[in-house]
Amino acid sequence: MLKKYRLPILTVLIVLVIDQCSKLYIKSNYPIGEVCRIVGDWSRITFTENPGMAWGLEFGGDYGKLALSLFRIIAVFAGAFYVRKIVNDGEHKGFIICVSLILAGALGNILDSAFYGLIFGESTEFEVAEFLPEGGGYTGFLQGHVVDMFYFPIYEGNFPSWLPIWGGEHFEFFNAIFNVADMAISFGVGIILVFQNRFFNTKNLKGTKLPVIEKSADDSYNP
After folding, report:
1. How far is CA 67 from each of CA 56, 92, 146, 217, rounded to the nearest angstrom?
2. Exposed, middle or buried by CB within 10 Å (0-12, 13-18, 19+), for 181?
3. Digit-coded pLDDT (tens) for 57-104
4. Which residues contact 188 (CB under 8 A, 6 or more apart)?
5. What DSSP element (H or E) covers 77?
6. pLDDT confidence of residue 72
7. What is the spatial distance between Cα 49 and Cα 167, in angstroms, rounded to a whole number?
8. Is 191 exposed, middle or buried (0-12, 13-18, 19+ CB in 10 A)?
9. Strands of the chain, DSSP E
C-alpha cells in the first residue's frame, strides 16, 4: 500500500532531516547574529530567528502568531491530501517531487514554531540557547521562532547619487536569510513554474489515440 507513496515520503523525510539537523545545530551552537563566512563575504552562515512570516513580517502579536501557525498546520494537512491525490491520479513524478518539497518545507518551519519555544531557552547576542532548560522554554506551543541561517549577499554597494529617492543609499542584492525548508519551498515552486508544460501535459498525452479516418468506397481518388 505504502509502496506507491515511497517517492513523496522519502522526499519529505530527507528534507525534514536535513532541515531540522541544520536548525538544531545552529540553535545549539550560535548566539543571535553570529556570522560564519563560507566563501568570501557573499556566502555566510548568519543565525537569526524569524517570529512571523517571510522576511520577518508579523501581525496581531501572540494571537496573530497562533493564527499563522494554525493556518500553516491546515495548509500542511491540505498539502498531504493533495500529494495523495496526485500520486493516485498518476501525475508526473517530477510534479509529485515538487509538491512534496513544498509540503516538507512548510512542515519543517511548523516544527520550529510548534516545539522550539518549548525545548530551547532564548537565544541572545551573547549566549547560546540552552536545550531543555530547567525553567522551561522561551515561549509556548505554536509560539516559537523559525531558525534561519543561510545568507548570500551576492553584491553590496550604494545606489548612484543621481537616482531619485534611493540615491546614495546602501543596498544588498539578495539580502534574505533563509533555511533548508525555505529552499525546498522555493525550489518546488520554481521547478513547477519552469516545467509546467511537461508536468501537466504528460498525463493528457498518455493513452491518447489519434483519430482514425475511415475511407469509404465512395471516397476514391479521382485525378
Report:
1. 16, 34, 15, 72
2. buried
3. 555 566 777 788 888 899 999 999 999 999 999 999 999 999 999 999
4. 97, 98, 99, 100, 101, 102, 105
5. helix 61-88
6. 86
7. 31
8. middle
9. 35-39, 43-50, 146-151, 155-158, 170-173, 177-178
The 10 Å Cβ neighbour count of residue 81 is 9
Catalytic residue list contains 148: yes
Q: How confident is the model at residue 34 (pLDDT cuts 50, 70, 90)?
A: very high
**3-state SS of 164-196?**
CCCCCCEEEECCCEECHHHHHHHHHHHHHHHCH
Which entry of 19, 41, 112, 148 is annotated as an active-site residue?
Answer: 148
Q: Which three three-digit cell numbers place residue 131?
A: 536545550
**Which of 106-110, 167-171, 184-188, 200-204 is predicted least confidently?**
200-204
More confident residue, 110 or 173: 110
pLDDT band for 154, please (50, 70, 90 cuts).
confident
C-alpha cell of 201?
501535459
> Where along the chain do its domains lie?
26-37+44-122+134-149+179-201
89 is catalytic: no
Q: Given the residues 41, 62, 112, 182, select the one marked as catalytic.
A: 182
pTM: 0.83
